[in-house]
């Protein structure tokens, strides 16, 4: 049994849906399904009961889940200890696509001054994964945007950004100084793919079911509006390209920029990163 396959199993067991697990793992569903079937063949037991509504763990799968989690945690610990013994110090930081700004530059400068011998590895996530791989153990700490499901995580708010409606510049609503969500009722919105964090999806949909083109990146959001006349939400500070505009919304709470890490994590570099992030965004 490979560690990679164990990670696949844990993702499906936690999501109870192959599509959501595939999105979380940044892979397509067919190879994930094949890997799980191969694992079931190796173990000689069905791990999931499959139905059109999703999947549930079988008795064998229920037994394997805590064992797989413990195995993966042990493997991560071994990897960290070997790296420390070899003198290598690394920190893997998850960042949300489109999140660059002057505060990030200040944070990078401050971290380099404080930890000049630490290698920082950046893993960028698209808009379908606001937690940036924290729950799956792919990063040590995330610099991202909320709100999203913080189960098992700790979060420190760094800044709160007002949001507005992203519109074509020739949209009749673009001439307004301020809008409400009711003004956007009946319009097609850009949406995130199935399996996206439900808290995140609900916020950026204005807490209503929406229909329209599926997007994963900031550029795709903008192109969906430009080419199709759809609408969606965006931070007011994100200046749109020519042909688009952003109008403030009066009834949307701000979106927080946050540092997030796994609850119970005692990695000293993680805590140093969070403290420096708070300083960079405060200044």
- The amount of helix comes to 25-40%
Q: Beta-sheet strand percentage?
A: 15-25%
Shape: flat
- SS field, number of helical segments: 8
- Count every beta strand, where a strand is a DSSP E run of 2 or more residues: 11
Query: Termini, distance in Å?
Result: 49 Å
Helix and strand succession? HHHEEHEHEEEEEHHEEEH
Please outline the major beta sheet.
5 strands, mixed
Structural class: alpha/beta
Average pLDDT confidence is 91
Strand order of the largest sheet: 4-3-5-11-6
Radius of gyration: 21 Å
Q: What are the segments in which pLDDT stays under 50 over at least 5 consecutive residues?
A: none
Q: What tags apply to this protein structure?
A:
283 residues; four-stranded mixed sheet; 11 strands; five-stranded mixed sheet; alpha/beta
Describe the protein's architecture and organization.
This protein is an alpha/beta fold and 283 residues long. The strands form 3 sheets. It has a 5-stranded mixed beta sheet, covered by helices on one side. A 4-stranded mixed beta sheet has the order 8-10-7-9. The mean pLDDT is 91. The chain has helices at 3-15, 18-25, 29-43, 59-85, 102-114, 198-204, 218-228, 268-282; strands spanning 48-51, 54-57, 90-96, 119-125, 141-145, 153-161, 163-168, 178-179, 232-235, 244-249, 255-262. It contains 8 helices and 11 strands. Helices cover 39% and strands 22% of the residues. Helix 1 crosses helix 2 (18-25) and helix 1 packs across helix 4 (59-85). The longest helix is centred in the N-terminal third of the chain and has 27 residues, at 59-85.
């Amino acid at each position: 049994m490979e560690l990679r396959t164990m990670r696949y199993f844990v993702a499906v067991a936690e999501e109870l849906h192959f599509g959501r697990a595939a999105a979380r793992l940044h892979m397509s569903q067919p190879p994930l399904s094949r890997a799980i079937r191969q694992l079931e063949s190796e173990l000689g037991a069905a791990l999931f009961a499959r139905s059109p509504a999703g999947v549930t763990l079988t008795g064998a799968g229920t037994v394997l889940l805590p064992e797989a989690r413990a195995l993966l945690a042990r493997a991560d610990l071994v990897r960290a200890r070997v790296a420390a013994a070899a003198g290598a110090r690394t920190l893997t930081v998850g960042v949300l696509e489109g999140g660059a700004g002057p505060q990030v530059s200040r944070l990078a400068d401050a971290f380099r001054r404080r930890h000049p011998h630490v290698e920082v590895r950046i893993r960028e996530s698209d808009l379908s994964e606001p937690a940036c791989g924290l729950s799956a153990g792919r990063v040590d700490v995330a610099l991202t945007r909320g709100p999203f499901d913080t189960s098992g995580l700790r979060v420190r708010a760094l800044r709160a950004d007002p949001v507005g409606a992203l519109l074509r510049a020739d949209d009749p609503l673009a001439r307004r100084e301020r809008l409400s969500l009711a003004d956007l009722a009946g319009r097609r919105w850009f949406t995130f793919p199935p399996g996206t964090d439900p808290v995140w999806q609900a916020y950026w949909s204005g807490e209503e079911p929406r229909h329209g083109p599926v997007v994963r990146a900031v550029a795709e959001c903008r192109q969906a509006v430009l080419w199709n006349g759809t609408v969606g939400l965006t931070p007011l500070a994100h200046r749109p390209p020519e042909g688009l505009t952003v109008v403030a919304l009066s009834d949307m709470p701000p979106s927080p920029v946050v540092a997030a890490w796994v609850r119970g994590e005692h990695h000293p570099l993680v805590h140093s990163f969070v403290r420096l992030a708070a300083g960079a965004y405060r200044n």
